Every structure is written in C-alpha cells, then in structure tokens.
Amino acid sequence: MPHSTLIQYGEDLKVDLDTGPDIADLSSPMEALLKRSGIQTGVMWANVVGSTGSLTTIEFEPGVVTDLKAAIDRLAPRNLPYAHELAWHDGNGHSHVQAALLGPSLNVAIRNGRFALGTWQQMVVINHDNRPRQRTIAVILMGRRG
Length: 146
Fold this sequence. Notes:
Jelly Rolls; single chain
C-alpha cells in the first residue's frame, strides 16, 4: 500500500463576539477550513488568542447556549471583587477566571475528511470579556490526505 505524506495546514479564523459571555458556533468555518486542507485522517488543534476567550464543544441550540452562559456566570460572577481589578481597574477580573476555567484550546480527531464529533456536538468560541471582541482562533490541522 502506498505511503501518503503527512501534511500540516494552518489558518486563523476571526469571529466578532458581543460582551461576554457570548458564544459563537464555529462549525461552518471549521468545516470549510478542513475541506480546504484536504486532510482525510488526522487531528485539529485550535486555540483562542487572548486571556478572556475560551473554546469548547456543546450542542449549539438556544436552550443549551442560555444554560451555559448562566453556568459560566455562576462559576465566576461579575459582581464579586477580583484582585485583577485592583491592579488594572478594567472590570474584567471575572472574564479572566471564566476563560481559565473553560480553557483556551480544543483538539478534535479527523476521520474520513470530517471532524469526529457527535451529531449534536458543535465547536464554539466564547468571549468572556466585559466588552465586544473580535476573537482570533489559531487552527492547525495535521494528517494525511489519502
């Protein structure tokens, strides 16, 4: 059987988000990026650039989105005192804590030219900051085309 070459492919995605927590579905842009890469079997690594953003997977439907936003606000409410605000006075101490709890990165297997995700599982980016942000998601795909 012929050996196919291992390749890597990278792009940055840009997503405009409202004041946090705001959540955007990355499914379509990620699938388009995978298609451009031509990779059939491999892995995707992604990270959101910045300390007040996070990546995760959810079922992207209004009820789950509402529930996740409420859970994020319960984990690190904006109305508590944060030491970060004593130093910077920018009002986003909760944003840093929320983002750290969810994490900045995501990796997903690629099989048969598709992300190995469940039927109701979508990749999402979350802005936790206390102002709208354009989030950059750095994506690297590595794998084989054949």
